[in-house]
Amino acid sequence: MSLNLNFEGALQALRTYFGYDAFREGQRKLIEALLQGRDVLGIMPTGAGKSICYQIPAVLLPGVTLVVSPLISLMKDQVDALNETGIPAAYINSSLSLAETNERMRQVAAGRFKLLYVAPERLESEHFRALVRQLEIPLIAVDEAHCVSQWGHDFRPSYMTIVRLLRDIESRPIMAAFTATATDVVKDDIVDRLKLSEPVRVTTGYARDNLTLSVVRGADKRQYISHFLRERAGQAGIIYASTRREVDGTHAWLNGLGISAGKYHAGLPEEDRARTQDAFQRDDVQVIVATNAFGMGIDKSNVRFVIHHNMPKNLEAYYQEAGRAGRDGEPGDCVLLFSPQDVVTQKFFIEQSEADEERKRNDYRLLNEMVQYAHTGECLQLTIVRYFGEENGEPCGRCANCTDDREMVDATDEAKLVFGCIHKLSQRFGVTMVAKVLRGAKDAKLQQFGFDRLAYYGKMSGQTEKAIVQLIQSLIGDGYLRLTDSQYPVVQFTERVRDVIEQGERVYRRVERELPPELARGGSSGRSRGSRSSGGGSARGYSEDPALFDALRQLRKRIADGERLPPFVIFHDAVLQEMCRVKPRTESEMRGVKGIGEAKLAKYGQAFLEVIRAHI
Domain spans of the chain? Predict the structure, then answer.
């Protein structure tokens, strides 16, 4: 499609509809490319403003823009938000009756909307394809585009229907693909499978400056969560668990403590899931316990924390889920509660899957990288951005590792014992066997192989097997050792071992310390950032004027309930905080608050001004 629309029109649309004067990093380049008729691939972290990259061009382009989105809840929230800004939008999905669907399609054909959201499964409907043949569709935007890749963490075969739809559109539309996270392999797969034509690629970076990442090992998970939630009463958060049983148990336990929480997993009736998600979106429930079924499409902007009760299957899935905290740019805490049983659970899932052997090997490789993240002593944010291919970066200064004040000790001699033992075992055994040999365990299998006659047998007999395993895991986490990509991974050397043995590089690790008694499981040791919070002890702890912020939130909630909308669709928390800072008293001053477009100013401005004036 040959286009060359004026970028000034995009800036004007941004100001009019969204209340901002400038685009964020990456947005301008993507929007300029789309307005010039170029395909694009945008990799932008959660909260970076991916949606605006196709919503602004949709306003300026002729006809209707088709948005392919995987979840009904995401469509509804985005459509509600667009209509609130004054941009006519609609969705067609399974939540509509046949009569409603037909009426919606008539409205689309009549040119009532600028954006139409559909699920990929809808593209297989001949009735819908007949509609498409009648429409002028200049742009197709594919949200959560990693779903099209077999190497992504959430592959959905239905996404393959997107390309087939192009046959029904007379003039090929511009194609735009967006996702929050994608490795280089996944990016190339997206381009290939969606048939993007020499796309402009923009990756804005994976670092989230407002998130504080933590890994907690060896804790009693329930005690930790109870302690954590007490310190954040009133804050919205998600607790992810790996199984339905874990969700049900944690949910019942929280309610037993008097903490109002919802639960969400694929085993619940659809109406229960919808009711729970709706309550969470509307701030009627502050905490959700869920499997990863509560995933993409969580558009709630004021989630202040995400706790992983269990370790996810890979870093891509972890960062997608953890990144649901702090979408509004305000502080968010992301805590991974790690236990060795999590690894066993994820291996079970891999073995029970119907994937071929190549895919299973890849899944084991990704799982090993997740385990390394759980044990690394390096900056957690830096570890993640490097996983996604960004080599340049500085420690974040916020994560649990960057702020860890424990003493660093020289562990070179212990590390050399581990390296020597692995060498004598010909790099053919796993972590547990190496630890047993060094501990001098009286193990039948060990004796059967004759390992009790090795020079390294019992060299670390003064330590527990668990402590030796922790040492080996930390050496894996810090890149001295690696695990093979298999169900029973073998410990092998990396090039860093040569630097220690031949170049004299020293190995340092932090002193293990006991968790506080109320958080420890059976007195085990581990690392914990415990009660540390980047967001303050309450939902309003980070506002410049907590009393005014509370009053504005209450007004927003009343308006949202009256209009049957989630509160963040009215205004994000960040907009309310900006009101607290600026304290506008006139409509003109309110227009200067970032995030308030003309439609929302006309609709809600006076009510919020009255609350601000009364407070002043």
Answer: 7-203, 211-387, 408-510, 546-615
Contact 236, 303 (CB under 8 A): yes
d(CA 81, CA 88): 10
Q: What is the pLDDT of residues 249-296, one digit of tens each?
A: 999 999 999 998 999 998 999 889 888 988 998 889 999 999 987 865
> Side-chain half-sphere of 393: how many Cα atoms within 13 Å?
22
Q: Classify domain 211-387 by CATH number.
A: 3.40.50.300
Average pLDDT of the residues of the chain: 87
Q: What is the pLDDT of residue 377?
A: 87
CATH architecture of 408-510: Orthogonal Bundle (1.10)
Q: Which helix (H) or strand (E) holds 274?
A: helix 270-281
| Model confidence at 89: pLDDT above 60 | yes
Q: Which two tokens stand for residue 71?
A: 């979840």
Q: How far apart are CA 404 and CA 399, in angstroms?
A: 8
In terms of Cα–Cα distance, which of 482, 438, 530, 435 is closest to 217?
530
| Strand ranges in 491-608 using DSSP code E only, listed in sequence order | 491-493, 508-510, 513-514, 525-526
Report how far apart, in Å, the C-alpha atoms of 515 and of each of 281, 340, 511 are: 35, 17, 12
Ranges assigned E (strand) in 79-235 = 89-92, 115-118, 139-142, 174-179, 200-203, 211-217
Instruction: Choose which CATH entry (3.60.21.10, 1.20.1250.20, 1.10.150.80, 3.90.45.10) describes domain 546-615.
Output: 1.10.150.80
565-586 burial, b if ≥16 CB within 10 A, otherwise e? bbbbbbbbbbbbbbbbeebbee
CB 515 within 8 A of CB 525: yes
What digits encode the pLDDT tens for the residues 194-203? 999 999 999 9
CATH class given for the domain over 7-203: alpha beta
What's the pTM value of the predicted model, to 2 decimals? 0.76
| Cα of 248 vs its chain's centroid, Å | 22
CA–CA gap between residue 184 and residue 473 (Å, rounded): 27
Measured between alpha carbons, how far is 194 from 174 in angstroms, rounded to an integer?
Answer: 11
Candidates 95, 143, 90, 51; CA nearest to 273 is 95
